Amino acid sequence: MRAESARVRYETDLEQTLATMRGTGARYDALVCLSGGKDSLYLLHRLVVDYRLHVLAFTTDVDIPPVAWSNIRRTIARLAVDHLVYRPPDAFYRTLFRHLLRNQEARGAVYTVSYVYAPLFEGDALRTASDMGIPLVVAGYSPGQPDPTRMEYEFPRAFIEKVDWTPPALRGAEEFGESDLARFWNAASRRSATPLPRYIAPFHAWRYDQHDIMRRVVAQGYAANARHASPIHSNYPINWLLMYSDLRHFGYNPYAPEFADLIRSGKASRRYWAVMAPLVDRMIRNRVGPGRAVTRSLRWLGLGANDLRITLPRGAYDPPAAGH
């Protein structure tokens, strides 16, 4: 009941926010983070078709697989929206991923890399929206993403306005200079005088059904088929290596609790994941099918399986909390 009460409260705010965005005279009503996965595709559809917003689709091009790029191209063409792609240096991310995987915090690779990597592309979106005077950033996070301690529906204003997002454990690491650390969001260092945008996740407010969204993006032609709409195939290739590392360290897939919560709340198909979850784990452990990305990522990073190490305490990379 508490979760539903929060969802209804978020939905009320979301509807008021999106109604306010229309007709402001700004070049764009919102910046939409577009990764090529089913949720970001459907989010873009809803904002353009259902809410008639003038949006800028925004993609940070790091480790996006061909399936996701296919989805992105199809969706941009069908919706006829402007699309901005930011391509940061590959060398920076290679160095970052190498460092993080060799120096994981206690919760393992998925948590460590995701919660250093996500603030980077979230910051890219905030910086772009701020510089262009776009008042709203909209992300396709499903319920339960990201970690609730970071966000439930919206990043707190204090977290955007007052917190330096640079992970503490990266300061002092010899691989990273000040120009590298400056890639993380820090409102104190921004140059634009425009008001800072809000950053919200509408799927925390709307009723969410993972299988229905997969079906809809195929029906609309944003994904060529069910395979392209599946998170198994549109996911970042590096994520297979992260799951591989956590399976080695912990013996279970760290995404299992998240999907279990979605299933219990009726937001994901129990039948689908009862089959796919153990299959995904076998593909990862044996490095077959999409799990071959484990080997490719290790080769790209110049690492071996024994380099995947947990060396730091829980929270080593977390920025200071700003409260909700």
Query: How can the largest sheet be summarized?
Result: 5 strands, parallel
Write out the strand line-up for the largest beta sheet, numbering strands in chain order.
Answer: 3-2-1-5-6
Rg over CA atoms: 19 Å
CATH hierarchy, class of the largest domain:
Alpha Beta
The count of domains is 2
pLDDT averaged over residues: 91
Mass-distribution shape: globular
CATH topology assignment of the largest domain = Rossmann fold
Which band does the percent of strand residues land in? 5-15%
Architecture of the largest domain, CATH level 2?
Answer: 3-Layer(aba) Sandwich
Instruction: List segments where confidence is low: pLDDT < 50 over at least 5 consecutive residues.
Output: none
Class inferred from helices and paired strands: alpha/beta
Q: How helical, in percent, are the residues?
A: 40-55%
H and E order: HEHEHEHEHEHHEHHHHHHHE
Number of strands: 7
Number of helices: 14
- How far is the N terminus from the C terminus? 20 Å
Key terms for this structure?
2 domains, 5-stranded parallel sheet, globular
List the helices and strands and how they pair.
Layout (H helix, E strand, L loop, with lengths): L1 H20 L8 E4 L4 H13 L4 E6 L5 H14 L2 E5 L3 H13 L1 E2 L3 H24 L3 E3 L18 H6 L15 H4 L16 E3 L9 H10 L6 H4 L1 H4 L2 H14 L5 H9 L5 H17 L5 H10 L8 E3 L12
Helix pairs in contact: 2-3, 2-8, 11-14
